[in-house]
Design brief:
The protein is mostly beta strands. It contains no helices and 11 strands.
Length: 119
């Protein structure tokens, strides 16, 4: 089993910054893609950013130029640096990882961390 634990959420005013972190632990041989998703009240969960083990990144158009995803493969961690935050960034942010345990790959989700941006 694999556990993902997020940290770093909170409340900030528009224009401010937050950094989210996610650490994966458990029965892990390797992790392929890691990413961040978010879900606002009454809306579906949407992709924010993803990063492969090789460092290739993908961002939602709404966060390009403001958010930066990074990872440490040795520590099985992924971070999301969020700058120039807007009220519409308010959501619960979830970490996701595709982990391989030498037998099979599975997708895992963290429990989510709240980000609130006030105007």
């Amino acid at each position: 089993q694999v556990q993902l634990v997020e940290s770093g959420g909170g409340s900030v005013q528009a224009g401010g910054s937050l950094r989210l972190s996610c650490a994966a632990s458990g029965n892990i041989f390797s992790i392929n893609a890691m990413g961040w998703y978010r879900q606002a009240p009454g809306k579906q969960r949407d992709l924010v950013a993803t990063i492969t083990s090789g460092g290739s990144t993908n961002y939602a158009d709404s966060v390009k130029g403001r958010f930066t995803i990074s990872r440490d493969n040795a520590k099985n961690t992924v971070d999301l640096q969020m700058n120039s935050l807007k009220p519409e960034d308010t959501a619960v942010y979830y970490c996701k990882a595709e982990a391989f345990n030498r037998i099979y790959s599975r997708l895992y989700w963290g429990q989510g961390t709240q980000v609130t941006v006030s105007s």
